[in-house]
Amino acid sequence: MAEEPKITIPDSESFESTPAKSSRDPEALRTQMQAWLTARLGDATDVTVGEITSPGSNGMSSETLLFDASWSDADGAHNERLVARVEPDTHDTPVFPVYDLEMQFRVITLAGQRTKVRVPRTRWLETDPTLLGGTFFIMDRVDGRVPPDIPPYTMDGWVLEATPEERATIERTTAESIAELHTLNPSNADLAFLEYDVPGETHLRRHVEHQRQYYKWVQNGRTHRLIDDGFAWLEEHWPEDEGETVVSWGDARIGNVMYDGFEPAAVFDWEMAGLAPRALDVGWMIFIHVFFQEITTSLGLPGLPDFLHRNNVRGYYEAAAGVPLENLEFFEVYAALRHAIVMSRVHERSVGFGQAVWPDDPDEVIYHRAAMQRMLDGTYWD
Fold first, then answer.
1. What is 16-140's CATH superfamily?
2. Rg of the chain, C-alpha, whole Å
């Protein structure tokens, strides 16, 4: 029997503290935000921005700032609960090489105007990066609860404590939200702003080429044999029929959804949005749960083995979309590959913040290494 590949799995205590995300000073941000909002509102008076905080359990890409703001104008007094998404400081080893906040603002606005997907109301976009140290946009804050990443929802929290029927509601309604988003496609909306400016004859070819270029940026002199093998696998198993191109959320997972009870109240985190076949988002949603589940079982915990199972998610999505999903296995492998690249960059961030070092074998930082290897070997779906 082949030796199980070595990975560096975090122990349970490591989930008690959140990885460093930013070196920006919250009070300086508050002062800058208040000055910006005062100028943006023009004739408004008594403009005040309260304490700025950040959610602690999810995400390490764009910075999310939560704050209350108040002002008075001709319409009366306003007291608003707001969220700013800010391009990360380049000194903080950002996860992605480019943060297109204008694209994110536009796709959220489009989804809100043209679909029934629950997204926050967008307010303002600021493309001048000198004001907060990066471009940003502001939207309304939505109340609800989010399945946590740290520690993952498979280890603790309200999703774990829910009944099977309640978790089935999460599966169904989230899959329905993805299907609803996928009603947007190049035939019914101007989606040029979502095109990747890379070579490729089809949207899927360009999507994969974009990931290949991202991997080259992430490498920084290192070679991940598993990722290289993943790209080779995709070429060997490229689908003859790639499927219909739609607006892709890109990071379609329950950790990027705010829930009211067990149904979506808001969908967020659109850094990875683009144009791709339907199965890309569904494969990602399925795989990210596998990622958390395998970490959980490696620590001797049961997790949620029946939750977000590929058969359930596929069934709910197909029922909502009214079309079959083709080549789902291909897109599950692609999800594992994409997440492997992200994991490499996340580890580089930890190194940059003095929280980790690189192992001799770079593939050890890919926590889902064993699962991805089984995918490439063809034994994962046995």
1. Phosphorylase Kinase; domain 1 (3.30.200.20)
2. 21
Q: Is the pTM for the entire model greater than 0.85?
A: yes
Reduce the secondary structure of 137-178 to three states and give it as a string: EEEECCCCECCCECCECCCCCHHHHCCHHHHHHHHHHHHHHH
Structure confidence by residue, pLDDT tens digits, 200-254:
999 999 999 999 999 999 999 999 999 999 999 999 999 999 999 999 999 999 9
| CATH architecture under which domain 145-377 falls | Alpha-Beta Complex (3.90)
Q: Enumerate the active-site residues.
A: 251
Tell me if 16-140 shares its fold with 145-377. Answer: no
The pLDDT tens digits for 87-115 are 988 888 899 999 999 999 999 999 999 99
Phi and psi torsions of 143, nearest 5°: -85, 145
Counting every residue written for the chain, the total comes to 382
Q: Where are the domains of the chain?
A: 16-140, 145-377
